[in-house]
Amino acid sequence: MAKGKLKLKTHKGAAKRFKLTASGKVLRGHAFARHILTSKARKRKRTLGQSTTVDAADVRHVRAMLPYGR
User: Fold this and answer.
1) Cα(39)–Cα(13) distance, rounded to whole angstroms?
2) Using CA atoms, how far apart are residues 52 and 26, in angstroms rounded to an integer?
3) Where do the structural domains in the chain lie, given as residue ranges?
């Protein structure tokens, strides 16, 4: 095998679910926004449609799955 740096594989499931911002934050979508929407309030549905940042405790795990998104 050739010497040099090994390429790391991106976790494709994570790549579809998370987005990295230019400042280094990790964005995610909300859960509970796909069905049974009739029983949810308008304000709640609007809020669930917006993306938010990943909790600080989980950022390390998400970044490990997305090695080339810096």
Assistant:
1) 29
2) 8
3) 12-65
- Three-state SS letters, the chain: CCCCCCCCCCCHHHHHHEEECCCCCEEECCCCCCCCHHHCCHHHHHHHHCCEECCHHHHHHHHHHCCCCC
Token pair of 32 as six digits: 């509970």
CATH architecture of 12-65: Irregular (4.10)
CA distance 70 to 68: 6
What is the predicted pLDDT for the residue at 1?
A: 59
Q: Write the pLDDT tens digit of every residue in 35-58.
A: 999 999 999 999 999 999 999 999
Contacts of 63 (CB under 8 A, 6+ apart): 26, 69
- Residue 12 token pair: 């494709």
